[in-house]
Amino acid sequence: MAIDYRGDPPQLIPASYLKYYLPYFTPQEVERLSEKQRGKLSVTQEEKARQQACGFIEAIGADIGFPRKTIATAQNLYHRFHLFFPRKDFAYHDVCIAALFVSCKIHDTLKKTRDVLIASYAVRFPDRAAKAKAMGGEIDIDPNQMEHDRQRLLAIERLIVETICFNFNTRLPFPYVIKISRAFGASKKVSKLAYRLATDSFRTLVNLEYPPHVVALGCLYLAALLSSFERGTTPEQPGQNNAHQIAATLSTSGDWGRQFQAHIEDIEEIAHEVIDLLISASQTATTANTSPQTPSSPSPHLSRTSAAPSVQVPYKADQLIRLKIVMRETEHPPRNRDSVAGGQNIEFDKSTSTFLGRNDKTVRFMFAPPGMVDDA
Amino acid sequence: MPEPPKEKLYVVLGHVGTGTFGKVYKASHTATGRMVALKQIKMEGEKEGFPVTAMREVKLLQSLRHDNVLRLYEMMVSHGTVYMVFEYMDHDLSGVLQQTEFEFTDAHLKSFCRQMLAGLAYLHHKGVIHRDIKGSNILVNSRGELKLADFGLARVYQKRRKSDYTNRVITQWYRPPELLLGATVYGPEVDMWSAGCIMLELFTKKPVFQGADELQQIYVVYKIMGTPTADSWPGITRLPWYEIFKPNEFIPNRFRDLFKKWLSPAGLDLAEQLLAWDPERRITAAQALEAPYFNQEQPPAATPVGLSALKGEWHEMESKRERDRKRRNEE
């Protein structure tokens, strides 16, 4: 996988493979692709790896002081990467570091490879980092090791950049959360919670499945549900809608669907994905406190050395589960969505990983899905 | 030329220039015969991976779509080298103004000027400052269409507030006075000064403010535009390097005297508004498109369609080569 960027082009550039950028995948497509890359891992193990990776990205990002957009984009790049590359072929921290590095360039929040690597060592080896800090220096890493890690980072960077077809435009749900919350007259408390849920949503795959304004609506819906569930109505300030009203509006079809170009089925699906994340985080939080788990077998892919921060949940597991049940009772059946691939095989049957990152092939990268690339 | 084998994607026809990251090649898409420019992104020796400047340029171009902005079709990775695949343009403005085979009429030059301003109006509307407008970054094709290219220095700005940027942008001869005086807070007005320089260059065929070095540059501008006054540019004294470069003596404005043999009265009016000292009073691209020069004064703009008959391709590189050849022949 060494990088071999050669000089002049040959006189004839040979026939090529085509890869189209797909901005979103249907949940079925995500499942089909994930299943392939999961390999021998169970769904639970895969989810655990995903949470560990997202926590790792979060921790390095916090250490460096990256803004939320950089961290969120990195998490989403990580998820997209593993739709096309097998989990068994990559250590999760290598992919995470490369994803953060690409993201910090995309958002122009620049850091050198060295800075990102140093921050990653500090998260992976907290004891050594603490010792180094006490001595007033930075963590001591063998230069050869660092150079080796840098080479791996750059090799994965290339795969990530090719996975996104060099499409560096990112749209995130955060600005939509603010605008849509205002449009619904949400209180500051509810809109803040919606914003936090949007942050958490990057630990799920919803941002690969839905455009940012739909994710924002899903997060506002869940925020309204969480703020009103099993609570009396509190008098709101004039001009504001209380959480009960917002939850009631978004739980039935109405004008908002047309106004915000969103389907009720989609925002319910997003709310479910995010509450599932909260439920599992609240459960691991309690089990960790009460009964220590048997340490799992050492694995090269799931390092246990990192102190990955998990989602902060201000709600108890049983309360969340009761809400989940209520949501299930009122939900609409999922809608049928067309794939944006427009009939193209998204799995790139011979498997994308065989023609991405190769130095003996020619690949054309299109910035949009098949029907949307106009060859003017 | 023998028929290229159909299984080939592109036939590389030649090397047409050198960009920031590597060479630029002209190639023909074998299936459609469409010409493209392949701009190489060299990664050799890049310790920081995919160059962030290339990433910025690609990201910007993906969000832009306008007749007067060079189109980036797609990216290609061939045998380990990354290429940006652009629509092909036969000439650049510097090159095409240097050649003597095809003579541009005033109506043609007006069309070039209008197309350049339309491209800039679009960029500024999208919140993008180009920051390197100059002859070799403005491309022209055989249909007489003009497109802005090379977004390596461009950046997105906040429309409501001016932010602090690097001062080291825009090629010296096209750099506006506020940058020459050290401004780091600026907006799209910097492009409009460059556009004013280009407008004059269309008629005179050579850059008008040719300072020998960065220190001399502002004095070259003083010589033509006269020295600025508290009236023509109230904010000048607040600029970082004002004390260093402030004029020792009063120099009168000779702009109209010098350029009236080249430009029409309405043309002079517009150029003068583009070259206003005070960035706040400099005309915007959208306003410039409404100028009497375009909408009232004869002749109306006419696309130089006759360019298709022009033999050869004129990039700055070729015209330099041609000049050198002539010079050698004369000696």
UniProtKB/TrEMBL annotation, chain A:
Low complexity biased stretches: 285-300
Region listing for Disordered, in residue ranges: 285-311
Any GO MF annotation of the entry: cyclin-dependent protein serine/threonine kinase regulator activity
Ranges where the Cyclin-like domain occurs: 55-162, 175-276
GO biological process: regulation of transcription by RNA polymerase II
Pfam families noted in UniProt: Cyclin_N, CycT2-like_C
InterPro entries: Cyclin-like_dom, Cyclin-like_sf, Cyclin/Ssn8, Cyclin_N
Keyword list, A-Z: Cyclin
SUPFAM superfamilies: Cyclin-like
CDD domains: CYCLIN_SpCG1C_ScCTK2-like_rpt2 (cd20546)
The family this protein is said to belong to: Belongs to the cyclin family.
Protein's UniProt name: Cyclin-like protein
The organism of origin for this protein: Lentinus tigrinus ALCF2SS1-6
UniProtKB/TrEMBL annotation, chain B:
UniProt key word Disulfide bond: no
SUPFAM superfamilies associated with the record: Protein kinase-like (PK-like)
Segments of skewed composition (Basic and acidic residues): 312-331
Biological process, per Gene Ontology: positive regulation of transcription elongation by RNA polymerase II
Pfam family, one: Pkinase
Enzymatic reactions: [DNA-directed RNA polymerase] + ATP = phospho-[DNA-directed RNA polymerase] + ADP + H(+); L-threonyl-[protein] + ATP = O-phospho-L-threonyl-[protein] + ADP + H(+); L-seryl-[protein] + ATP = O-phospho-L-seryl-[protein] + ADP + H(+)
Gene Ontology CC: cyclin/CDK positive transcription elongation factor complex
Record's keyword terms, sorted: ATP-binding, Kinase, Nucleotide-binding, Serine/threonine-protein kinase, Transferase
Family: Belongs to the protein kinase superfamily. CMGC Ser/Thr protein kinase family. CDC2/CDKX subfamily.
Protein name in UniProt: Pkinase-domain-containing protein
Organism in which the protein naturally occurs: Lentinus tigrinus ALCF2SS1-6
